[in-house]
Amino acid sequence: MHNQALVLFSGGQDSTTCLTWALQRYARVETIGFDYGQRHAVELECRKTVREALCAARPDWAERLGEDHMLDLGVLGRLSDTALTSDARIEFERNGLPNTFVPGRNLLFFTFAAALAYRRGLSVLVGGMCETDYSGYPDCRDNTLKSLQVSLSLGMDRPLVVETPLMWLDKAATWRLAEQIGGPALVELVKESTHTCYLGERSKRHPWGYGCGTCPACELRAKGYAAYMRPQKDTY
User: Fold this and answer.
1) Which is an annotated Pfam family here (predicted)?
2) Which of 8, 62, 105, 154 has minimal CB crowding within 10 Å?
C-alpha cells in the first residue's frame, strides 16, 4: 500500500542518506525542500547536485526518483529570531535549547509536505530527524513525530506514514548506513556534495566535508566521521 514516498530533502548529510534509504525501498520517490531564510541557504544549492549525482550513480535510483519541489517558507524565517535565520552568535538559551532551534520548523515542514503528498498521491513522508545524536530540538523527538503522523493522517483523512530512519542512530552510524547503501562512492558524495554547516561555509574542506569546523553541526559531523573511521571491534 505504502510504496510511494516524499523525502524532506535539504541537501545535507542526513537528508541525503534518507533519500538513498527511500530509493532502496519505494517504487517512486519525490523530494521537497524549504527556503525559510536559513543562514546556510547554500544547502539548497547542493540539492540539485546531489540528486543528479545519485541518478548518475545508480540507474535504478534514476528510474525511481521523481519530481523535486521547493517551497518558499520565508514567513518562518521572518517569525523566527534564531541563529539559523540571522547572524546571531550560536549559544544556548536560558531554557536549555540552542538558539539554532527554529520553533515549529519540523512541524511546518511535515504539514506542508503532507499537503503536497496528498495532491501527488504519496503516502510516506521521510525525514532525517534524530533523537540519539542531535542538538536538543524538541521537534526532532520520536514522540513528536509519532503524534504528528496521527494528526496528519486524521487531518488528511487518509493514512500517512512518517519514516525517520536515522532516529536512533548516532552520526557515526549514519556514515555507516550511507556506506551500507551505496558503498564508498556514496560516502564520498556525502563528503563532497552535501552541506550541513550552520554558517554556510563551503570554502574550507575537511576530511568529513565542507564547513566552518566549529559550529555545532560541523563538530557533530566531524566527531561522527572520526568514530566511523575507527576500526570496528568484533564482538562474539
Assistant:
1) QueC
2) 154
**Using CA atoms, how far apart are residues 226 and 206, in angstroms rounded to an integer?**
11
pLDDT digits (tens, 9 = 90+) for 38-74: 877 888 999 999 999 999 999 999 999 999 999 998 8
The kind and range of the H/E element at 59 are helix 59-64
Binding-site annotation: residue ranges for Zn(2+): 197, 212, 215, 218
Q: Is the pLDDT of residue 233 over 70?
A: no
Grid coordinates given for 43: 544547502
The secondary structure element, H or E, covering residue 99 is none
Please tell me whether residue 153 adopts helix, strand or coil conformation. Answer: helix
DSSP type of residue 28: E
Residue whose entry in the numeric block shows the C-alpha cell 509536505 = 113
Phi then psi for residue 201, to 5 deg, are -80, 120
Annotated binding site for ATP: 9-19
Query: pTM of whole model > 0.85?
Result: yes
CA–CA distance, 126 with 26 (Å, rounded to integer): 11
Cβ atoms of 216 and 90 within 8 Å: the answer is yes
- Is residue 232 within 8 Å of residue 219, measured between CB atoms? no
Q: Which three cell numbers stand for residue 137?
A: 530540538
| CATH no. of 4-229 | 3.40.50.620
Exposed, middle or buried: residue 123 (CB in 10 Å: 0-12, 13-18, 19+)?
Answer: buried
* Residues shown for the chain: 236
Q: In Å, how far are 167, 195, 228 from 232, measured between CA atoms?
A: 22, 27, 8
Do residues 164 and 175 touch, judged by C-beta distance below 8 A?
A: no
Annotated binding-site residues read 9-19, 197, 212, 215, 218
For the chain, the domains span: 4-229
